[in-house]
Amino acid sequence: MASYAGELSTEVAPAVRVRSLHRSFNEAGGVLNGLDLDIAPGEFVALLGRSGSGKSTLLRSLAGLDRGVAGTGVIEVPEKVSVVFQDSRLLPWKRVLDNVTLGLRAGDAADRGRQALAEVGLAGREKAWPHELSGGEQQRASLARSLVRDPELLLADEPFGALDALTRIRMHTLLRKLCEVHQPAVLLVTHDVDEAIVLADRVIVLDGGVVRHDARVELDGRRSQADPAFARLRARLLTELGVEDDHDAPGRHLDRAVERAAS
Ligand SMILES: Nc1ncnc2c1ncn2[C@@H]1O[C@H](COP(=O)(O)OP(=O)(O)OP(=O)(O)O)[C@@H](O)[C@H]1O
């Protein structure tokens, strides 16, 4: 694994610094076993790992949502952290704009909320109730709620996992655009290797409670699945995950068809 911490040390202070992080839920063994991780300001890191490898545990630790869990280690995160989950977690009894601005005290909260909703393509839906939005629209509102807080760190736990393939691709485009504008550091937990490569500057693989693999994504522009470099990185990551890369699997054909339709 590349020593990422060393590369950063003389440049800028990392937005996220984790050292020797241990977490365990019972005596049976640790989930995180001395994990080290740096994320630079504005850097987009995707986190892959087998089911149960501790991805959500790491994300929840960074979000401060792990109270009561045994563990040691150093966690340094910026002051302003936003979290997006697989379900939008919008409050059903509040209208969309009120969900987005919930807890904001600034006098211009409503204006900022409207602007955030416009950025995610939900202008005009401010007064809608969450149940009146589609799944994709609910996740857009959830992104707006995060971005209105102008986070220095965005933590996302499989935010597109419940969406259909076409909506997911649209959300990828939206998230990339929002990240270009707002430049938060991002840690995205995903099971989808292609999603990781399409979105991230760096992809890390968690295994045995530590970062086992750390790959910079050196692809320019559109990051097409048809690019041989994309395929090579996918194959390498799938090997790290202990999975065969099956180019002929039905899902791959669907992905390619959806990509063609979206381009
Ligand atoms: N609150 C909890 N109490 C007890 N064990 C837990 C708790 N939360 C997670 N675990 C255990 O910790 C391990 C790591 O879980 P975690 O949810 O972090 O994995 P993950 O990589 O995000 O998995 P998945 O990809 O399936 O979502 C699992 O074995 C899980 O059973």
UniProtKB/TrEMBL annotation:
Gene3D superfamilies: P-loop containing nucleotide triphosphate hydrolases. Residues 16-233 form the ABC transporter domain. InterPro entries: AAA+_ATPase (IPR003593), ABC_transporter-like_ATP-bd (IPR003439), ABC_transporter-like_CS (IPR017871), ABC_transporter_ATP-bind (IPR050166), P-loop_NTPase (IPR027417). GO terms for molecular function: ATP binding. Pfam families: ABC_tran. Keywords: ATP-binding, Cell membrane, Membrane, Nucleotide-binding, Translocase, Transport. This is ABC transporter ATP-binding protein. It comes from Nocardioides pini.
